[in-house]
Amino acid sequence: MRDNDTQNNANHQDSKQSQHFAIEQIVFVVLMIISLLGMVIMRFSQQDGYAYWLFMVLVFSILSIFVSKLQSKIKDIDFNAIVKEQGLHWLHTLIIVGISSLLHKSGQLSDMGASLVILLILALATMLDGMRIGWQFSVLGFFLAASTVIIAYVELFIWACAGLAIVVIIGTYFWELRQYKIQSVIVGSNQR
How far apart are CA 22 and CA 173, in angstroms? Predict the structure, then answer.
């Protein structure tokens, strides 16, 4: 009887991890897509691109806290401590973005320059947040940083950034799937 309960508990835990893997992958893809959308907006309206990246700092912070909430359900993590730590991280990010906004308003940065600075700040904040919640966020941060350089140097940057996004999404999906399968094999062999 105890073996059946253990097996049912393991199956339930495996199902939860599968579900969280899928949700985290969806969040990652959504963040990549809305990042590309911001780059398209920058291409056609530098002023709107600037406002879009300001707003994206809030979106990234909310979604990273959401991912942390998912992780706290399957790992032994104190969600309140995570919210406090990430809240401070993203608050500091917003402060620096606000300061860059003041530089923009003073005329020291053009609309495009301000957008690129905010994109770099968002890239760094996302990379650093990835150290807490998972490597995919770090990869997303590197994607944003690479895209900033592409935008600065490539005239038709949309296609280059979209191609890079596709490579990153496919690569991270297969890497995460591989890691999940390895973990399942390890857990399965430990239960025998």
Answer: 10
- 121-159 pLDDT, tens digit each: 999 999 999 998 888 899 999 999 999 999 999 988 999
> What is the total count of domains within the chain?
1
| The token pair that represents 81 in the structure block | 């401590």
156 phi and psi angles, rounded to 5 deg: -95, 60
Stated pTM of the model: 0.83
Measured between alpha carbons, how far is 66 from 107 in angstroms, rounded to an integer? 36
Q: Tell me how far apart the alpha carbons of residues 143 and 120 are, in angstroms, rounded to a whole number.
A: 10
Measure the CA–CA gap between 65 and 126, rounded to whole angstroms. Answer: 12
- Which residue in the block uniquely carries the two structure tokens 């600075």? 117
Quote the domain boundaries for residue 46: 2-190
Number of other residues whose CB lies within 10 A of the CB of residue 51 = 16
